[in-house]
Amino acid sequence: MGKYVHGTDAAEQERLRKLNELTNPPFLKFLHLSPHDHVLEVGSGLGILASQAAEIAAHGRVVGVEYSMQQLAEVNVGRPNLEFIRGDAHSLPFADNTFDVVYCRYLLEHVSDAQSVVCEMYRVLKPGGRVCVQENDIAVFQLYPDCPVWGELWTKFGEVQEKLGGDAYVGRKLLTLFRSGGFGRVELSLHPEFHYAGMETFELWIRNALLILETSGPDLVAHGFATPEQLKTARVEIEKFLTLPDAASYFYWNRAEARK
Ligand SMILES: C[S@@+](CC[C@H](N)C(=O)[O-])C[C@H]1O[C@@H](n2cnc3c(N)ncnc32)[C@H](O)[C@@H]1O
Predict the structure, then answer these.
(1) CA 231 to centroid of ligand 1, rounded, Å
(2) d(Cα 6, Cα 155) in Å, to the nearest integer?
(3) Contact 48/20 with Cβ under 8 angstroms?
(4) Residue 168 and which of 81, 91, 155, 213 are 20 to 30 A apart at CA?
């Protein structure tokens, strides 16, 4: 298994919590769960999203699979229809045809073999069940006005993630992954993230991006992709960007939904 590029220290877990605050409501809409659904989240992290899914599938059951003990230790189960299991997405610990809905979010970029994970999601899904995925493609992240050093390191971040066994551009590959994974009709969509000066979400979104870079800082330096000075300059650029009255950022998540 590849190394998880963001790690699981307290600052990173706090970043993930905040990212959940921002991105869970639209993702739950995209999932459109029913009260009796039997649901699996693959790579459930801190379990925040799975817990909200369990509120909606109130008469069903939600299971989160996660391989990191550190993430599992932070999970607040708190609901009778929710459980978390330690396991690897490449080899899900469930029988064929078990779940009505299987989803993952921000996972495929981190696994060493995204295709085998999608095949596993297909295997554990009941016939007629749905798979929903939301993933990342770092190439579509834009800032204006430009932050040149930050931008250069952002691209390097993609390279280091690849070196560690992941894929920072996996979002654009969802159609291939789903079709090769056995799904017939696949629906692709994009979910936009526009955050600009004056919006309540602006600082949260930009600091999330900065933390992504900074949590991978030691790997960027260790693999020769960045110097500590460049990382400092990137931070200065972003701090300045945050004070600009006309600063804007543009991004979208890649989504795919398909039935078995
Ligand atoms: C960015 S977090 C996303 C967590 C959650 N899905 C969310 O949206 O908040 C990615 C999670 O996937 C987990 N992960 C990475 N590779 C995995 C694998 N092969 N099997 C299970 N979990 C994995 C990591 O430990 C991490 O908790």
Answers:
(1) 25
(2) 16
(3) yes
(4) 91
Q: What single DSSP character describes residue 110?
A: T
Q: Which residues pair with 41 in a beta bridge?
A: 64, 103
Q: For residues 61 and 93, is the Cβ–Cβ distance under 8 A?
A: no
The pLDDT tens digits of the residues spanning 184-231 come to 889 999 999 999 999 999 999 999 999 989 988 999 999 999 999 999
Q: For residue range 6-32, what is the model confidence (pLDDT) as tens digits?
A: 667 777 778 788 888 889 999 999 999
Mutate which of 15, 31, 51, 110 for ligand 1? The one with the most ligand atoms within 8 Å of its CB, which is 110
What does 20-82 look like in DSSP terms, one character per residue?
Answer: HHHHHHHHHHHH---TT-EEEEES-TTSHHHHHHHHHTTTSEEEEEE--HHHHHH----STTE
Closest atom, ligand 1, to C-alpha of 2: 16
- Ligand 1 nearest-atom number relative to CA 104: 6
User: Residue 187: beta bridge partners?
Assistant: 257
Report the nearest atom of ligand 1 relative to the CA of 90. 19
Whether this prediction's pTM lies above 0.90 is answered by: yes
Q: What is the distance in A from the centroid of ligand 1 to the CA of 145?
A: 32
Q: And the tokens for 217?
A: 């800082």
pLDDT of residue 236: 98
Burial class (CB in 10 A: 0-12, 13-18, 19+), 62: buried
**Peptide bond between residue 145 and the one before it cis (omega within 30 degrees of 0):** yes
Q: Do 145 and 117 meet the contact criterion of CB atoms below 8 Å apart? A: no
- The binding-site residues of ligand 1, defined as CB within 6 angstroms of any ligand atom, are 1, 4, 16, 20, 43-45, 49, 65-68, 71, 88-90, 105-107, 110-111
Higher-scoring residue by pLDDT: 83, 21 = 83
